[in-house]
Amino acid sequence: MTKLLVIVGITGNQGGSVADAFLSPPPSTQWRIRAITRDPSKPSTQAWAARGVELVQADLDDIPSLTSAFTGAHAIFAMTDYWGPLFDPAVQAAALARGVIPQTHCAELETQRGTNLARAAASPVVQATLERYVYSSLGDASRLSGGKYTKV
């Protein structure tokens, strides 16, 4: 039986390297890959489709879309991104509208998105087949180092 690996962030360094490990010659015959993307029509995403990756539209802010994308998965590689949203003008505007600095808003956004990923993976329909869940993120270096590293 071919198992299903769902990858969040396939167009980035982490998700892309996970996909490459399964697609590099000789490609795995035990696994097929599904990539979650906000926009399946983007050229960077289409490049993965050309390599045999199934593309599914989902949004890290929408738990039902994640649950649907995770359904049938035997393994999930999930990740969140603090830095990408930090430089998004819409995210910066949302932070200012809330009266917080963009860094605070992005940290909260990353936490919420990580929670959304975990909640979707924990749903009964996903749990019916899920064997492994790998979550990748960066911790708050300043807080974890007691303030020693503040510019990480």
UniProtKB/TrEMBL annotation:
- Ranges for domain NmrA-like: 1-149
Pfam families the record matches: NmrA (PF05368)
Top-level taxon of the source organism: Eukaryota
Q: Which Gene3D superfamilies match?
A: NAD(P)-binding Rossmann-like Domain
> Which keywords annotate this record?
NADP
* A GO cellular-component term linked to this record: nucleus
Keyword NADP appears in the UniProt entry: yes
Against InterPro entries, the record matches this protein to: NAD(P)-bd_dom_sf (IPR036291), NmrA-like (IPR008030), NmrA-like_oxidored (IPR051164)
| SUPFAM superfamilies, A to Z | NAD(P)-binding Rossmann-fold domains (SSF51735)
What family classification does the UniProt entry report for this protein? Belongs to the NmrA-type oxidoreductase family.
What is the name listed in the Swiss-Prot or TrEMBL entry for this protein? NmrA-like domain-containing protein
Could you tell me which species this protein originates from?
Podospora appendiculata
